[in-house]
Please model this.
Amino acid sequence: YSADEIAARVAELGKQITADYAGKDLVLVGVLKGSVIFLSDLMRGIDLNLKIDFMAVSSYKDETVSSGDVEILKDLTHSIRGKDVIVVEDIVDTGLTLFRLMEILGSRGANSLRIATLLDKPEPRIKKELKIDYCGFQIPNKFVVGYGLDAANRYRNLPFIGVVINPEEA
Ligand code: 5GP
Model:
């Protein structure tokens, strides 16, 4: 996806969220680090008096595959009790990371809790209950980088989203 295509789609999501959250107490929760560019653009496309906060979680991919859990590396700065929260993710693959994160945030008394992801892969969802409320693009099952997404912490600053053709050389 080119920078222009991404900008157009993110602006659409911003308009949709603006309409859906009028009069609400909106907090965007960015999941570090991949979501930072998406969050930065999305929030400027939302014409509401919103707040932002961040969480960092360890991916199960760094651990044994079977552990199936996520660890909170950085928690929210402010309480989300009574707030209307949208968790902002870069990409949903199996959905495991986000499913666990929604379980954790779901116990904190938010008025509402939804998901916005820039990219969504067609992988079979670990938990089918994971509902994606706002999605930028459905993509094929390939490893992508750019616009916040990394390969070994590189390429996050690419203004477009592309496929890594040879991951060994990434
Ligand atoms: P899940 O728990 O949904 O399987 O994995 C989600 C996380 O895996 C994302 O937040 C991201 O960090 C990583 N991930 C999954 N697919 C890709 C991809 O194609 N490219 C990059 N850069 N990261 C990915």
